[in-house]
Design a protein that fits this description.
- The protein has 378 residues and is mainly alpha-helical.
- The protein has a domain at 56-189: Cytochrome Bc1 Complex, Chain D, domain 2.
- It has 16 helices and four strands.
- The protein has helices spanning 5-24, 28-35, 56-66, 79-82, 127-136, 145-154, 156-166, 174-189, 198-208, 211-215, 219-229, 266-275, 293-297, 331-340, 348-353, 361-372, and strands spanning 248-249, 256-258, 261-262, 308-309.
- Strands 1-4 form a two-stranded antiparallel ribbon. It has a two-stranded antiparallel sheet with strand order 2-3.
- α5 (127-136) packs across α8 and α11 crosses α16 (361-372).
- The protein is globular.
- The two termini are 26 Å apart.
- The mean pLDDT is 92.
- One heme C (HEC) binds next to α14, α15 and α16.
- Heme c 1 binds at residues 79, 82-83.
- GO terms for molecular function: cytochrome-c peroxidase activity; electron transfer activity; heme binding; metal ion binding.
- It holds the Pfam family CCP_MauG.
- Residues 1-21 form the signal peptide.
């Protein structure tokens, strides 16, 4: 049925009035801060350290490997065991379990192509090195370079895909084959990109003056967004279109693992990064060191103890539980953490940025509504 013209006109006027009401509340400073969280998606360029980056043929090999549990010696653990496509590429567990219990929560792999450092402690400086690591880690997949190379050489399907992706048959050098497998895995993960969300429609509507788009954003999410860029101080660390600085901070989340053990976070990550033959300064990177300035200059300092990478908040509603140890079960629990954070636990630097916000119940719910509005629309 065709909608009569007058009805459409009334609806448009109503939408415009609502939009004015919502947007009129925003100060110019708030509007400017909100606009900095877009546009989305971000442009991206291939990784100079990975010659297979962005190659469609490598994506296919990477996809096959990602779901292949034969990489683990007993054939039980694939990447997808802990990074499940039906769970925003996480496993839904507080801490992961591969061949053994892991201390950390599996991060979502959506938008992973955008980060500079990988892992909660940034122990890898490329997506491919972060993909090689779990295959060889005894407690995760427990594979070996030799076994991985053998799998790629001896499985007819993988061998054919390897040849298409790299232009060559798997070399006799096991390490070269394993590194290429990791680079293909990275090429696949580069395709895991979060879509546009209700927040993006709102933000772009603000930018272009599209009143209907602005009016369509729920009032509670808008109140939460104002807290986020305002009193909450959240966008100091969760900044830009991806809602992360991609650097390391302390928000007073405990790092004790029990039994006198602690997760040292960034300080240990820097040591591992510098010691790794697979970093951007090493012989296996295709960038020749030209892309390695950040890696060359990073140095562990005492203050890096217990720092963890600032995670993106896009699609965060789909990746519970939260934080590096996964001990906060819901977004409500995360917001409560920021509301009640124990200042005694904060490093000096963190204490400047994070203060207990003492949110009312309504404010906490608004902040959660905002975080949910960062979920991609189908
Ligand atoms: C046992 C569960 C498990 C398996 C299996 C696993 N991962 Fe992970 N993954 C994790 C955990 C836990 C982390 C966080 C590790 C850290 O902080 O050091 C992680 C981190 C990552 C990261 C870094 C993400 C980021 O945002 O920094 C990438 C990339 C990744 N995994 C890819 C893979 C690939 C590719 C495979 C298969 C080759 C794989 N993972 C297998 C649990 C797993
Ligand atoms: C000082 C920088 C900083 C500030 C300010 C900050 N965050 Fe965070 N945020 C982090 C870091 C770092 C983590 C990970 C901490 C960890 O795992 O130990 C994190 C984790 C989170 C997570 C969990 C994401 C996940 O995937 O596990 C959410 C949600 C979140 N922050 C929301 C917020 C909100 C809302 C605010 C404002 C009230 C805020 N953050 C303020 C740095 C910050």
């Amino acid at each position: 049925m065709r909608r009569p013209g007058w009805l459409a006109a009334i609806l448009l006027v109503a939408a415009a009035l609502l939009a004015d009401a919502a947007a009129a509340e925003l100060t110019p400073a708030e509007t400017a801060r909100i606009l900095r969280h877009g546009p989305w998606p971000l442009a991206w360029r291939p990784d100079p350290g990975n010659r297979l980056s962005g190659k469609a043929e490598a994506v296919e090999l990477g996809r096959a490997l990602f779901f292949d549990s034969r990489i683990s010696p007993d054939g039980t653990v694939a990447c997808a065991t802990c990074h499940r496509p039906d769970r925003a590429w996480t496993d839904g567990r507080p801490a992961s379990r591969g061949l053994a219990d892991h201390d950390r929560n599996a991060p979502s792999l959506l938008d992973v192509r955008l980060w500079r450092w990988f892992g909660w402690d940034g122990a890898s400086d490329s997506l491919w090195a972060a993909s090689l690591r779990p295959m060889l880690e005894p407690g995760e997949m427990g594979g070996s370079v030799a076994a991985l190379a053998r799998l790629v050489r001896e499985d007819a399907g993988l061998r054919a895909q390897y040849r298409t992706a790299t232009g060559d048959a798997p070399a006799t050098d096991d390490m070269a084959v394993a590194v290429d497998a990791a680079k293909a895995l990275a090429a696949f993960q580069e395709t895991l990109v979060g879509g546009r969300s209700p927040f993006d429609r709102f933000r772009d509507g603000l930018a272009s003056g599209d009143r209907a788009a602005v009016a369509g954003y729920p009032a509670d999410a808008l109140r939460g967004l104002r807290l986020f860029v305002g009193r909450g101080n959240c966008s100091v660390c969760h900044l830009g279109p991806a809602f992360t600085s991609s650097e390391f901070e302390d928000v007073g989340v405990g790092y004790f693992l029990g039994r006198g053990k602690a997760d040292a976070g960034r300080i240990a990550g820097i040591d591992r990064l510098r010691a790794s033959p697979f970093n951007r300064l090493g012989p296996w990177s295709d960038g020749g060191g030209a892309d390695a300035a950040a890696t060359r200059h990073v140095a562990a300092q005492h203050r890096d103890f217990g720092l963890f990478r600032v995670p993106s908040l896009r699609n965060v509603a789909a990746s519970a539980p939260y934080m590096h140890h996964g001990r906060l079960a819901s977004l409500e629990a995360v917001v409560r953490h920021y509301s009640e954070v124990d200042e005694e636990r904060l490093h000096v630097d963190g204490a400047r940025l994070v203060r207990p916000l003492r949110l009312s119940e309504g404010e906490a719910a608004d902040l959660v509504a905002f975080l949910r509005s960062l979920t991609s629309e189908p």
